[in-house]
Amino acid sequence: MRKTTHKMRRGVQVRTARVTMTDIAKEAGCSQATVSLVLNRTEGVKISPDTRARVISVARDLGYSAANFPDLFEPDMPVGSESTIAFVVDQLATSPEAAIAIDGARQAAWGAGNVIISAQTMSDPIMEPHTIEALLSRRVSAMIYMTIITRELKAPELLYRLGIPLVLLNCYTTDHAFPAVVPSEIAGGEGATKHLIDHGHRRIATILGESWMDASKSRLEGYRRALATADIRFDPELVVEGDWSTTGGFAATQKLLKLNSPPTAIFCQNDRMALGCYDALKEAGLRIPEDVSVVGYDDEDVSRHMRPRLTSCVLPHRAMGRWAIDRLAEPFTPDRKRFPITKIECTLVPRDSVSGPRSL
Asked: How far is the CA of 33 from the CAs of 19, 30, 39, 59, 250, in angstroms?
């Protein structure tokens, strides 16, 4: 049995003993002839892209080197010089936020001739490392790691030893080991509530998402700050959980309308709950905004098509994607111990769902 030693290279194990094409063929699950064709770049032979990528990946992981294959170990090109950037996200198909962030990153990357490739991991403890290693085998020059839910991240160990620039998007680590960008949720909740206060409302309710989530807690803190700044007493009766869903928004609004002193304005912490809020208000025979004003959050497409059009706060995933690309263009400093968390403003978009309270 061949004795080998190991060292770390870009998050994968590399053997320092001499590696042969036979070794690569065994690891890659193909013939030695196929390995030879791939590594020698033989033209006129049809080999599937998957097989070609697998052979190159295995060759790199095992530490293969040959005079006619020097670029296997060329240094990665810096971001900004026609390089490839990996965009890793836990969920891609279940929410529009990931697609918006990826598109923002793409727009910024293309301006410098860079390419974005994306992959979904579902945070699977086995498949996520495999996915990241597969991306590294494509010689990506940098990586963006995103979570759909804004949250503290227990980063996979592999992220700490990538050897390439990494930015966290919509998540952060307590050790501040990586540059990170998140929405400025407290300021967003404060701005949404202040908008209602500025229109003369003082009996303002809020419908939370799920109270354990960072976004919900931060938007509630912003709501409370706005009330305190305006010297309006916080009333816990006016805070109702709606679980981010249209049905939850409907039920929460019905609960608020049963209060002895119902609200004159409702800050819904996402647009889907605002849609349910609209239905409940209209079912109760109330007009928007003449009887009750409503503000949403996220500024999804539906907000523009609701009647009346919904005032909402932009969830800045497109801007966060652009910021991530800009940050990757800065010098890579892997020995730095702490990085700040950047917060991007959740801008309020006024539309037709807010007016002064009926009593004014």
From this structure: 16, 8, 10, 14, 65
Nearest alpha-carbon partner for 214 in 187, 173, 242, 186? 186
Residue 308: half-sphere exposure toward Cβ, Cα within 13 Å: 19
Say how far apart CA 262 and CA 357 lie, in whole Å.
12
User: pTM for this one?
Assistant: 0.76
Task: Show the CA angle centred on residue 86, arms to residues 81 and 90, nearest 5°.
Answer: 160
3-state SS of the chain: helix, strand, coil percent to 5? Answer: 40, 20, 40
How does pLDDT run across 156-203, given as a tens digit for each residue?
Answer: 899 999 989 999 999 999 999 999 999 999 999 999 999 999 999 999
For residues 114 and 85, is the Cβ–Cβ distance under 8 A? Answer: yes
- Residue written as tokens 């579902």? 122
Q: Which pairing describes strands 166-172 and 180-183: parallel, antiparallel, or unpaired?
A: parallel
d(CA 191, CA 225): 10
8 Å CB contact between 303 and 277: no
Q: Say if residues 54 and 113 touch (Cβ distance below 8 Å).
A: no
d(CA 335, CA 128): 25
What's the one-letter identity of residue 281?
A: L
User: From CA 311, how far away is CA 192, in angstroms rounded?
Assistant: 9
CB 227 within 8 A of CB 332: no
**Bond into 75 cis (ω within 30):** no
Count helices and strands in the chain by DSSP H and E runs: 11, 14
Give the CB-side neighbour count of residue 40, counting CA atoms within 13 A. 11
What pLDDT is recorded for position 315?
95
172 vs 151: CA distance, rounded Å: 7
Considering only CA atoms, give the Rg of the chain: 26
Gap between the Cα atoms of 164 and 133, Å rounded: 12
